[in-house]
């Protein structure tokens, strides 16, 4: 794994405009950064990233199987009781999942370490599946990168194929997509998924989360009062279950992507339970629930809220004292603790690898850099190649 | 599109149609041909269907139609025996349909199977001489996606078992085109509550 400087494409901002990449710069700061790229060998990609990603996913599915069958674990995972049987049902009827992103730290040829599973609402999808793919095409066409170069990134191809399978499962007339208002990034991510669904022959429609209605047939409805048969929501289940329309989900015929059972995997309680079920697995970091902290012999721990997004409310503890922390609105549902394992440093940057899955297949990686040890939502995105 | 010249497996998407990914283009003309075909197909594509939960239910609701009800009921029972999902053992059947919801079905060669009870039957196009009844099933199992739903033998979900009358399309697949929205704005409150944190919050994903 190398970090190599690169000359930016002279026209990349025009390219971004042409292809509707509207969030490459946010709040005056660069988000997309092609002044450098990372280079991997095929062996690093396949043995160190691809294989463990698929194996960890299977381990996560075993966690779901255990949690849905247990009142104890459902309580531990802070799942409201009203939804227990609906979540079990969504699991036992094998309602299809679309995608996930695992966050990893990779130090040389050490086994990569699993930080967490973004199983419900992962973002940086467009940048990965399309935009960095286009970057490599342009760089190769401009003779700036070897024609032998490849990229670990079959994300778009796999998303289109997965949408076809989801269409076979639900046979919907139309497929709705939703995200919150006032965020270019989320709207861009959802538009990309709509494009992939359209490429699979589906009739895509859009509705903001805040505009969703409840119809008299119990279907959720869009702004045209059309019943929503199937909806992709870039909005976390842990929010939805606690909001006014939450209980209507139980009686509504509207179907959801991600399915309800994904709420178990997007939950940080996953981490200590994985460690209990698969102790000393080479890709896992020791992790503990609050009441098991006495068992932890690590001097440094990372404290994470059971529900949180993009680094918010994460802190690093040294012998119980806070060394570094990020503010935020999360944590009322409790915390878990994970052994401290710092990100590798390249030049002046801490580098996080996101490994993507479409359903259960590893589908590519994304790379984020941050000046801080705790990666947040303003970290920069860098492309990569395999050579 | 460039391909590696050696035989290594390619790890990236083979090709992406850039034309389809482009967002800035001249306005495309609306295809009137397509729109009018769509409208034609929409007309006259719906009909009434009523669910009866028993022979008496039918007789009570359709006075003077006893004979039609009896014939329809018998036909639905036959159709249920022919088309209902069959299981090797009662537990598997009850896993899908709920406890007490399954009966023994003995086929011609004497083998025993288990199948769900017919919970009702649907008659569409009642006034037509060619009406034909279809058996409906329902599930009380928490593991079934058909819990408290009317479901046909093919797995088609007709809707909530509290409702006995449906406007259905002739192909029996689709929900109504539009419905009446009772309320909006029941999702999104968590975002309002949490967005006071940091003006830099740009995504509710992660």
Tell me about this structure.
The complex is a heterodimer of chains A (387) and B (206). Chain A is of the alpha+beta class and 387 residues long. Helices cover 29% and strands 25% of the residues of chain A. Chain A has helices spanning 12-18, 42-68, 71-76, 84-92, 125-141, 155-170, 184-199, 237-240, 248-251, 270-277; strands at residues 2-5, 25-26, 29-30, 36-40, 99-105, 113-118, 175-178, 204-206, 213-215, 220-221, 230-233, 255-257, 287-289, 300-305, 315-318, 321-325, 335-339, 345-346, 349-358, 361-370, 380-382, 384-386. In chain A, strands 5, 6, 18, 19, 20 and 21 form a 6-stranded antiparallel sheet that branches. In chain A, strands 13-17-14-15-16 form a 5-stranded antiparallel sheet. Chain A has a 4-stranded parallel sheet with strand order 8-7-11-12, with helices on one face. The mean pLDDT of chain A is 94. Chain B is built from 6 helices and 9 strands; from the N terminus they run ααβαααββββββββα. In chain B, a hairpin with a 5-residue loop joins strand 6 and strand 7. With 206 residues, chain B is of the alpha+beta class. Chains A and B meet through helix 4, helix 5, helix 6, helix 7 and strand 9 of A and helix 1, strand 7, strand 9 and helix 6 of B.
Any chance you could write out the topology, listing elements then pairs?
The complex is a heterodimer of chains A (387) and B (206).
Chain A (H helix, E strand, L loop, with lengths): L1 E4 L6 H7 L6 E2 L2 E2 L5 E5 L1 H27 L2 H6 L7 H9 L6 E7 L7 E6 L6 H17 L13 H16 L4 E4 L5 H16 L4 E3 L6 E3 L4 E2 L8 E4 L3 H4 L7 H4 L3 E3 L12 H8 L9 E3 L10 E6 L9 E4 L2 E5 L9 E5 L5 E2 L2 E10 L2 E10 L9 E3 L1 E3 L1
Parallel strand pairs in A: 4-22, 7-8, 7-11, 11-12
Antiparallel strand pairs in A: 1-4, 2-3, 5-6, 5-19, 9-10, 13-17, 14-15, 14-17, 15-16, 18-19, 19-20, 20-21
Chain B lengths: L17 H4 L10 H11 L3 E7 L2 H7 L4 H18 L6 H8 L4 E5 L5 E5 L3 E5 L8 E4 L12 E3 L5 E4 L4 E5 L11 E4 L4 H6 L12
Antiparallel strand pairs in B: 1-4, 1-8, 2-3, 4-5, 6-7
């Amino acid at each position: 794994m190398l970090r190599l400087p690169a000359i930016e494409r002279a026209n990349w901002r025009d390219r971004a405009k042409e292809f509707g990449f509207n969030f490459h710069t946010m709040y005056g700061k660069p988000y997309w950064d092609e002044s450098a790229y990372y280079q991997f060998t095929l062996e690093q990609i396949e043995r160190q990233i691809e294989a463990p990603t698929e194996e960890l996913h299977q381990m996560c599915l075993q966690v779901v199987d255990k949690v849905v069958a247990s009142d104890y674990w459902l309580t531990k995972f802070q799942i409201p009781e009203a939804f227990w049987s609906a979540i079990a049902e969504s699991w036992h009827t094998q309602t299809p999942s679309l995608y996930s992103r695992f966050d990893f730290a990779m130090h040389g040829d050490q086994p990569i370490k699993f930080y967490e599973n973004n199983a419900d609402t992962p973002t940086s999808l467009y940048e990965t599946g399309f935009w960095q793919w286009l970057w490599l095409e342009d760089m190769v066409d401009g003779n700036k990168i070897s024609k032998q170069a490849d990229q670990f990134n079959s994300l778009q191809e796999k998303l289109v194929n997965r949408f076809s399978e989801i269409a076979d499962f639900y046979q919907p007339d139309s497929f709705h997509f939703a995200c919150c208002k006032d965020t270019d990034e989320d709207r861009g991510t959802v538009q990309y998924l709509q494009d992939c669904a359209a490429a699979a022959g589906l009739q895509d429609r859009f509705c903001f989360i805040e505009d969703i209605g409840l119809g008299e047939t119990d279907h959720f409805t869009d702004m045209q009062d059309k019943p929503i048969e199937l909806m992709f929501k870039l909005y976390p289940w842990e929010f939805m279950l606690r909001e006014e329309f939450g209980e209507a989900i139980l009686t509504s015929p509207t179907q959801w992507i991600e399915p309800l059972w994904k709420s178990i995997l997007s939950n940080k309680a996953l981490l200590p339970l994985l460690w209990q079920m698969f102790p000393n697995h080479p890709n896992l970091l020791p992790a503990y629930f609050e009441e098991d902290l006495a068992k932890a012999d690590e001097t440094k721990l990372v404290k994470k809220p059971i529900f949180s997004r993009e680094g918010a409310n994460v802190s690093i503890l040294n012998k119980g004292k806070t060394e570094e922390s990020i503010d935020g609105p999360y944590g009322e549902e409790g915390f878990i603790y994970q052994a401290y394992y710092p990100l590798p440093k390249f030049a002046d940057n801490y580098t996080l690898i996101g490994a993507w899955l479409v359903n259960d297949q590893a589908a590519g990686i994304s790379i984020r850099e941050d000046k801080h040890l705790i990666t947040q939502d303003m970290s920069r995105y860098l492309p990569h190649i395999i050579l | 599109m460039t391909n590696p010249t050696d035989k290594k497996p390619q790890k990236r998407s083979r090709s992406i149609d850039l034309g389809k990914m482009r967002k800035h283009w001249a306005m495309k003309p609306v295809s009137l041909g397509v729109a009018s075909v769509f409208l034609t197909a929409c007309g006259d594509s719906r009909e009434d269907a009523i669910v009866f939960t028993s022979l008496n239910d039918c007789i009570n609701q359709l006075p003077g139609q006893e004979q039609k009800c009896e014939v329809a009921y018998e036909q639905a029972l036959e159709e249920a025996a022919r088309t209902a999902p069959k299981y090797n053992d009662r537990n598997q059947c009850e896993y899908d349909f709920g406890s007490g919801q399954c009966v023994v079905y003995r086929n011609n060669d004497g083998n025993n199977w288990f199948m769900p009870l017919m919970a009702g039957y649907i008659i569409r196009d009642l006034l037509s001489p060619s009406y034909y009844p279809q058996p409906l099933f329902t599930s009380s199992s928490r593991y079934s996606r058909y819990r408290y739903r009317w479901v046909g033998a093919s797995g088609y979900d007709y809707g909530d078992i509290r409702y006995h009358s449906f406007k259905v399309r002739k192909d029996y697949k689709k929900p109504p085109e539009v419905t009446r929205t009772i309320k909006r704005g029941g999702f999104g409150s968590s975002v309002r509550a949490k967005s006071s944190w940091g003006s830099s919050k740009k995504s509710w994903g992660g």
